[in-house]
Write a structure and sequence with these properties.
The complex is a heterodimer of chains A (358) and B (323).
Chain A lengths: L18 E12 L2 E13 L4 E5 L6 H9 L8 E8 L2 E2 L5 H7 L4 E4 L3 H4 L6 H12 L4 H14 L5 H4 L9 H13 L5 E5 L7 H17 L3 E6 L2 H7 L2 E6 L2 E7 H6 L4 H8 L50 E4 L2 E3 L20 H7 L2
Parallel strand pairs in A: 3-8, 3-9, 6-7, 7-8
Antiparallel strand pairs in A: 1-2, 1-4, 4-5, 9-10, 10-12, 11-12
Chain B lengths: L1 H26 L6 H6 L5 H11 L5 H14 L4 E2 L5 E2 H36 L4 H15 L2 H15 L21 H34 L3 H8 L4 H32 L1 H6 L5 H11 L2 H29 L1 H6 L1
Antiparallel strand pairs in B: 1-2
Helix pairs in contact in B: 1-13, 5-6, 5-8, 5-10, 6-8, 7-8, 8-10, 9-10, 10-12, 10-13, 12-13
The chains are: A alpha/beta (358), B mainly alpha (323).
Bound molecules: adenosine-5'-triphosphate, iron/sulfur cluster and magnesium ion (MG).
Adenosine-5'-triphosphate binds next to helix 1 of chain A.
Pfam family, one (chain B): BPD_transp_1_N
Membrane topology (chain B): Multi-pass membrane protein
Keywords (chain B): Cell membrane, Membrane, Transmembrane, Transmembrane helix, Transport
Chain lengths: 358, 323
């Protein structure tokens, strides 16, 4: 969506997806060699779409997001592949140019609203700062917009709240303020890295509602990072399951939830907590732990924990195979003619999906 | 406002405690007659009698305490017997501005220099600039101030005094600002630098470490994600947050220096400040002067700490709410 207040990177062309990530690899130097953390990750996000990026802790979700934003500054890091935002390549873009996109066209919100604001400035000051970093407008104009957006994000008495310091706000309000700051320059893409993990359940639901409503009110696309399949079910049109830095499965949410093609996805779906009632902090354990990035097995990374593992799995990492329209999984089972059984509607919260994905 | 009043009350209480402690150490130590100590060595019996009566050493301790505080702060006629009846308090009042000028100037130098060095080092982390600056800081910390002062004197007063570089350096001693601002500056600029060197070393290293640690914080990542320039993130978010630690460190050092901690620098450069006064009193065992300077320094340390707390409240909104 093109806002009137600033020029666009490129006119919105319906044939070009908003975000097109292909073959993204990120490796960090450790112990004298490069350790691949994210390997060959590809996905596209259309205008006004919501994509859920799911995976266990350490699967590389945050690294993927930071790589898209060009925010990884670890010395010696290697980022390869391509990230196209409205057709424009972001990998390798000079820092000055990617900085102009950050906060204005692509905004990011983080897991812990407690620590994500600078403690010594007021909320309003920090939102004003972002607006004024990208647009030539006066302090009063910036503040007026800050107050308006805070109000739209459901912050009560926004004028007074803007004069508050971060520690004076509750976690939920702070996350709303964080989202307000992210939206202050009317970005087309919002990357939300586990935006609800640090919040309690009722507040979680409110924040998710808010994020879901953004595409209607602001036309924003959202890349929603979470380790909670339940959150994906409630929120996202499409799903990408990441396992140990590789794509395990990707596809439209309803397809992935009804016809999981990868045993890991199926295990995740089994672990969705009840729709009502408390949602655990972390995914209920699937037996075993993911391999450390330094020592991934030669074949399928999920092999050591997979109930269906056999000889064909342990030689090379299985490639992504198409299972249906836009639906792919990196598992040998479908090709061998023994796909996983589809799940019945009773197995997963179909109602919520129906709401979220018209 | 109530917080400030609360703080003021606390300060008074601490001052009272300190004065009792100082009094106790000097006059209420059992087994030693304070009369002889005040009167000095080889005093005649008449003088001993006069001192005993004047200070009330024949009366109970609380009365002695009140008399002493009166002599220190109200009538201000505490006299040094070792130094032929010279009044102590006016002497301190004369010395205080010299110390204040010395310490404030040095503080200005070390604060600006260490902020510049620490910030540049943090911005260029792990480059040779960073390593060079931090080595320099380490050298500054390890040089004893007394030795550095002597070397500075040797170079600027003797060996190279006649070269164009140092011919402007005046002889040792102090020139009051009211008498000649330029002379004041010339007399102090070398002592300032010498006193500041160690603190530049400490503060720049502390600041650099603090900034590097902060760089991994969530809010710094947020600031980058907002699209701010790296310099703005470093100065407005990193450095501004570091100032909270910086100021608390500064308060302590500043207070102890004003309270006489600049003794060595004052002695080396012949500056008639509180530190040198203490030094002289210590060498002649002049008890009233020693006690008065100790009391004076304690007052200064406590007051400076209170001032830092007030600055703190302005720097850190979290402290504001907690108090
Ligand atoms: N700057 C870095 N240098 C080296 N290794 C890193 C760096 N950042 C992340 N990693 C490694 O990359 C892996 C993936 O980390 P990442 O933060 O992306 O996980 P995540 O999926 O976001 O997990 P979580 O759910 O805990 O947030 C981890 O093993 C982590 O140790
Ligand atoms: S490839 Fe083999 S080990 Fe990997 S998920 Fe499929 S069946 Fe399991
Ligand atoms: Mg993460």
């Amino acid at each position: 969506m093109c806002s009137l207040t600033h020029g666009c990177v490129m006119p919105a062309d319906p044939t070009i997806p908003l975000l097109d990530v292909s073959d993204l690899c990120v490796s960090f130097p450790a112990g004298g060699r490069m350790v691949p953390i994210v390997e060959h990750v590809s996905f596209t996000l259309p205008e006004a779409g919501i994509l859920g990026l799911v995976g266990e802790s350490g699967s590389g979700k945050s690294v993927t997001a930071m790589a898209i934003m060009g925010l990884i500054d670890t010395p010696g890091v290697r980022v390869s592949g391509s990230v196209r935002f409205r057709g424009r390549e972001l990998v390798g873009l000079p820092p000055r140019q990617i900085r102009r996109l950050r906060g204005r066209d692509i905004a990011m919100i983080f897991q812990d609203p407690m620590t994500a604001f600078t403690p010594v400035y007021t909320i309003g000051w920090q939102i004003d700062e972002q607006i004024r970093a990208h647009e030539r407008i006066s302090r009063t104009q910036a503040r007026a917009r800050t107050v308006r957006i805070l109000g739209e994000m459901g912050v009560p008495d926004p004028e007074r709240m803007a004069r508050r310091y971060p520690h004076q706000l509750s976690g939920g309000l702070r996350q709303r303020a964080m989202i307000a700051m992210a939206l202050s320059c009317n970005p087309t893409l919002l990357i939300a890295d586990e935006p609800t993990t640090a919040l309690d359940v009722t507040v979680q639901a409110q924040i998710l509602d808010l994020i879901r409503s953004l595409r209607g009110t602001y036309g924003s696309s959202v890349l929603l990072i979470t380790h909670d399949m339940g959150v994906v079910a409630q929120t996202c049109d499409s799903t990408l399951v990441l396992y140990s830095g590789r794509v395990a499965e990707t596809g439209p949410s309803d397809r992935v939830f009804s016809h999981p093609g990868h045993p890991y996805t199926a295990a995740l779906l089994d672990s969705i907590p009840p729709l009502y009632g408390p949602r655990p902090d972390r995914l209920p354990a699937i037996a075993g732990a993911p391999p450390v990035p330094m020592a991934r097995p030669p074949g399928c990374a999920f092999g050591p924990r997979c109930a269906h593992v056999h000889a064909a799995c342990t030689t090379t990492p299985p490639a992504l195979l198409p299972l249906g329209p836009d639906h792919e999984a990196a598992c040998v089972l479908p090709a061998e003619g023994t796909p996983l059984p589809p799940r019945t509607a009773a197995d997963w919260p179909i109602d919520t999906i129906g709401d979220a994905c018209p | 406002m109530t917080a400030l009043l609360h703080r003021a009350g606390q300060t008074l209480l601490v001052l009272f405690g300190v004065s009792v402690l100082v009094f106790g150490v000097f006059f209420a130590t059992p087994g030693a007659d304070p009369t002889a100590r005040i009167a000095g060595r080889n005093a005649s019996p008449q003088i001993m009698e006069k001192v005993r009566h004047e200070y009330g050493f024949d009366r109970p301790l609380p009365v002695q305490y009140v008399i002493m505080m009166k002599k220190l702060f109200i009538t201000r006629d505490l006299a040094s017997y070792a130094n032929r009846g010279e009044r102590v308090v006016p002497e301190i009042m004369q010395a205080a501005p010299v110390t204040a000028c010395l310490v404030c100037g040095a503080a200005f130098i070390w604060v600006t220099m260490s902020i510049a060095m620490g910030t540049v080092a943090a911005a260029m982390k792990d480059t040779w600039v960073d390593r060079g600056l931090m080595m320099l800081g380490l050298v500054g910390i390890s040089i004893p101030v007394f030795w550095l002062g002597e070397v500075a004197n040797l170079v600027t007063q003797n060996r190279y005094h006649d070269t164009w570089l140092f011919s402007w350096v005046p002889g040792l001693g102090y020139v009051p600002f009211s008498q000649s601002p330029l002379g004041w500056f010339r007399a102090l600029v070398i002592p300032w630098t010498v006193l500041a060197v160690m603190f530049i070393g400490i503060y720049s290293r502390v600041l650099r470490t603090d900034l590097v640690t902060l760089a991994g914080e969530d809010f710094i990542r947020t600031a980058h994600a907002k699209g701010l320039s790296p310099i703005r993130v470093l100065l407005w978010h990193g450095l501004r947050t570091s100032m909270v630690t910086f100021v608390s460190l500064f308060g302590m050092d500043f207070a102890q220096l004003v309270g006489g901690g600049a003794l060595l620098t004052e002695v080396v450069f012949g500056l008639p400040g509180v530190g040198r006064l203490t030094y002289r009193a210590l060498t002649t065992l002049d008890l009233p002067v020693i006690m008065a300077t100790v009391m004076y320094s304690a007052v200064f340390v406590v007051l400076a700490n209170a001032a830092v707390d007030v600055i703190y409240v302005f720097l850190d909104p979290r402290v504001r709410d907690a108090s």
